[in-house]
Amino acid sequence: MTTSGSSGTGADSSGFRGEFPSATPTTRRIAEGLSLPACERRRVLDSEGIDLRKLSRLLTQDNGQQSPFLIRRTQQFERRVLSNGMADVIDLARRELDLRIEEVKQSVIDAASIRDAVPGLTPDQVDRQRADRTAAYLRDMLTQPSVAVNLLQKPLIRLRLGGREVLVEQDLMVCAAANETVHLVDIESFAEIDGYLDPEQVGQTMAACAVAVISLRQMATTMGVDPKRISDRMLLVTPSQTGFTPVGRLLNLSHHIARLEVLIDNLDRLCDANGLADELGATGAPGANLPAMPLTPGTDDWAAAERRAWEAISPLATHLTEACMSCPMFRACRREAQTTRSVTVLGTGAAQEAGGVFSVTRSIELANGATPASPAEAGIAAALVRARLATEAAMRTVAVAPANEAESEDVEDEGGAVS
Length: 419
Ligand code: SF4
Fold this sequence. Notes:
- The chain has three domains: 2-64 and 269-340, no CATH class; 68-264, no CATH class; 341-419.
- The chain contains 14 helices and nine strands.
- The chain has helices at residues 27-34, 40-47, 52-60, 68-96, 111-117, 123-143, 199-222, 254-270, 273-281, 300-313, 330-339, 348-353, 360-367, 375-418; strands at residues 2-3, 106-108, 151-153, 157-161, 164-168, 173-178, 181-187, 233-239, 246-252.
- Strands 2-3-6-7-8-9 form a six-stranded mixed sheet.
- Strand 7 (181-187), helix 7 (199-222) and strand 8 form a beta-alpha-beta unit.
- The longest helix has 44 residues, at 375-418.
- Iron/sulfur cluster is lined by residues 36, 39, 41-42, 318-320, 324, 327, 329-330, 333.
């Protein structure tokens, strides 16, 4: 089965996604999903290609939009980098990656250029054409580099993931080929200030690019080419200081690739085709699929779709931790945890301590001496009672201390008056 990206209009009325919009998976989203392996909800939503931002918006009515200033800055930087035949990128690639590019031959494989060339295609067909062209260009880059293009902009790559094929893209990624090797060049708008880049942003970018390298290596292997010719050394291009002058930084992805390959292997074992079907079948009752995305917040249609979406995703187990902050579903899952008084709202440490007790309400009942209803509750009940007694004793001490202090101050005041 191929999970193809579309611009959000494709419908799968028979499956869990129903008529809810899909989204083309990005390398960033896949790296993020692989790093959250304990969450069944995220795994199922990802494997169905569901647009997580739109689903979160339906469930919370929160747009979660970036600041207009950041969006404008990103667009301005992209325009600068792509202008003049990507001359800046080529210079940086020659300098930082030591690429011997004699003559620049470049191609762009974005959706607009496919639609211009072949009008009337559906979004899924556009994606397939982009993926086919990416594969053809990559084959030429690896097998006949002297005549192939050496700069490929907006490739759409194929990744084997969880027993299926996924089409994946990255916002602004370029494949640069020379010396019989293909390197990734990733263009990001976060700035390098005084030679310093935000380590969190760099880490997320490296994980996303590692997914791209893994998928390009899978494609090279199916072409009978040594996958190591897709290099683990990449070039990150960012703006310098507060302006738009691009600067390059060489990054080594080998650790990220090794870590993500293990996670992909684990997912393959977990989600073979039958396993995934069982998992989805186990989620629920007839009609437990997602609704179509309503148009206007605050309407009855929206409220009905929101209820139906909660019914569909509630049976999927979550694993809410601090690592979830980067997940597009975070606001929705946190709201659900607050509404159900889940112990996860108290933080990962408290949730781990609570063991098999999942709600704050039940924890308080057990702390007040309620009889445990299961071995899991019995395991934590005694500790909760001890914690309540210790807290009450501490509160009594705090309540008595100010009274004593007040008394001693009175005595001192009296003494002062006498002298
Ligand atoms: S935010 Fe929700 S869906 Fe995303 S990983 Fe966390 S628990 Fe899972």
